[in-house]
């Protein structure tokens, strides 16, 4: 039935156990939820066929409709270290004032790379200097493309760049070079940004383990960064890049940026095109920025799920007219700051009766991933996967999920979306971004969230009271689909009177009487 002669007896027994322990309870829950009556008149699947053919190729010009603020009185710091922790807009002011060139800036960031964080796969030095020289030439001609003009950045290494390796973090694909230019990379080139590195993704976009090691958290290098956007989160936190592009299927942006203390946007699903990016799940994959920008939005003609979503200006939002909810696990400092800014803050709960949210997410993710990596599994390449308790087990179990039960899970997903939409009576809400139930709900619904750092606490079992290592505290500002600018407006209001997001991690400068064994000794 499964055409699975390639599976060993032990693997078949593993699938049988997984189906009994995991698949069947989810199947029964979904049937009870949406399949108790026949005829399909209720609870339609949320996967809808789009009969339109490819739209005409759009111009890959950056969106310049936003009113970006211009920081006043920006001067070039004496220290290169200080430059690497300046904001994108501050760096842009230095470039426009000819206080630094893009070539200089690129060199400053390239010099920062080293082994300690295990967060970089490929340094694109030759390409970076080529793009930086072009950015400087355009500036000399009086042409300024966008706020990203001349700014170095990194891409998660599931995003294809021609003539450079795109390894997907996997031993099976570590020498892969794709003759494809990802949509998001094309957009960033059009905005004048400078690619300096391909950053770590967990192997096949699962967690932080990749063929070269395991990515560390700059705030506590004894910890790992978690999440498959491990490289973008770790590098942005450590000042190795001013901003980076990650991706998310289930928490792959929100979880590592929360651990690494980075401001990040997971945008509305469909806001950023996915062409040229390793595909895991057609109906879940997000693109997002660590340290946020608008220049990658727009309709991707080769991605049928992408949309040309109008992006409102966060600076034009009157937050005093907003009603914002807060969950029980919200960081109350954010609530109090926004309240002091005139926002109407009210207690809030996400209301839904679907009890198989995490199971729906797993069915959706595992079945669709296996469809994209069927040959990989059939060739037994999963035997060389870096962490055998991750994709190999999940995707073998996914082969035992029937088409009927997959569709039922999508009907249950549709019911979840309907119920949450009906209960979403606020303009936005504040809540935890690492709670697994919220991660699953947010990804199944495709809603945007901005992660903001809100403080720090002591690490557990600290070897010294003088250690500089910290545990970061963050929270999320969630908004309805297509209302990313509302979440961003609230995040900007909070960060305008706090400085948690400006703090610098110790990386390997741990402080007196503190040392982490078995780690490289230089950044």
TrEMBL record:
It comes from Anisodus acutangulus. PANTHER family: AMIDASE FAMILY PROTEIN, TRANSAMIDASE. GO terms for molecular function: glutaminyl-tRNA synthase (glutamine-hydrolyzing) activity. Residues 115-424 form the Amidase domain. InterPro entries: Amidase, Amidase_dom, AS_sf. Residues 501-523 are annotated as: Disordered. This is Amidase domain-containing protein.
């Amino acid at each position: 039935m499964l055409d699975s002669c390639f599976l060993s007896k032990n693997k078949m027994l593993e699938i049988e156990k997984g189906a009994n322990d995991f698949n069947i309870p989810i199947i029964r829950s979904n049937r009870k939820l949406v399949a108790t009556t026949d005829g399909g008149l209720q609870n339609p699947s949320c996967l809808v066929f789009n009969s339109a053919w490819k739209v005409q190729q759009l111009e890959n010009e950056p969106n310049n409709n936003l009113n970006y603020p211009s920081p006043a009185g920006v001067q070039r710091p004496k220290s290169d270290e200080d430059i690497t922790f300046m904001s994108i807009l501050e760096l842009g002011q230095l470039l426009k004032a000819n206080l630094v060139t893009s070539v200089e800036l690129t060199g400053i960031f390239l010099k920062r790379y080293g082994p300690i964080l295990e967060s970089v796969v490929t340094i694109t030095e030759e390409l970076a200097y080529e793009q930086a020289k072009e950015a400087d030439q355009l500036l000399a001609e009086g042409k300024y493309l966008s706020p990203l003009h001349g700014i170095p950045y990194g891409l998660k290494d599931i995003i294809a760049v021609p003539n450079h390796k795109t390894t997907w973090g996997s031993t099976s694909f570590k020498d892969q070079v794709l003759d494809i230019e990802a949509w998001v990379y094309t957009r960033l080139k059009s905005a004048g940004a400078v690619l300096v590195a391909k950053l770590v993704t967990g192997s096949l976009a699962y967690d932080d383990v990749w063929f070269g090691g395991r990515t560390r958290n700059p705030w506590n290098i004894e910890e790992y960064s978690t999440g498959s956007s491990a490289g973008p989160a770790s590098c942005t936190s450590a000042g190795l890049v001013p901003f980076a592009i990650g991706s998310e299927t289930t928490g792959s942006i929100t979880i590592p940026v929360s651990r690494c203390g980075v401001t990040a946007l997971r945008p509305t699903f469909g806001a950023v095109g996915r062409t040229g990016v390793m595909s895991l799940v057609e109906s879940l994959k997000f693109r997002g920025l660590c340290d946020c920008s608008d220049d990658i939005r727009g309709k991707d003609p080769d991605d049928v799920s992408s949309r040309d979503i109008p992006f409102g200006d966060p600076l034009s939002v009157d937050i005093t007219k907003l009603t914002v909810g807060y969950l029980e696990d919200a960081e109350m400092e954010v609530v109090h700051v926004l309240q002091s800014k005139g926002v109407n803050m009210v207690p809030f709960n996400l209301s839904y009766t679907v009890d198989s949210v995490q199971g729906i997410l797993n069915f959706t993710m595992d079945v669709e991933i296996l469809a994209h990596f069927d040959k990989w599994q059939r060739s037994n390449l999963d035997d060389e996967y870096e962490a055998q308790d991750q994709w190999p087990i999940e995707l073998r179990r996914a082969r035992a999920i029937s088409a009927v039960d997959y569709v039922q899970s999508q009907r249950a997903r549709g019911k979840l979306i309907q119920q949450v939409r009906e209960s979403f009576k606020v303009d936005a809400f504040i809540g935890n971004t690492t709670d697994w139930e919220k991660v699953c709900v947010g990804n199944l619904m495709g809603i945007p969230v901005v992660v903001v750092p809100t403080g720090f606490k002591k690490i557990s079992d600290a070897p010294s009271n003088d250690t500089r290592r910290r545990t970061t505290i963050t929270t999320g500002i969630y908004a309805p689909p297509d209302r990313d600018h509302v979440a961003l407006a609230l995040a900007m209001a909070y960060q305008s009177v706090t400085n948690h997001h400006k703090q610098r991690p110790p990386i390997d400068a741990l402080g007196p009487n503190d040392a982490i064994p078995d780690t490289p000794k230089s950044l």
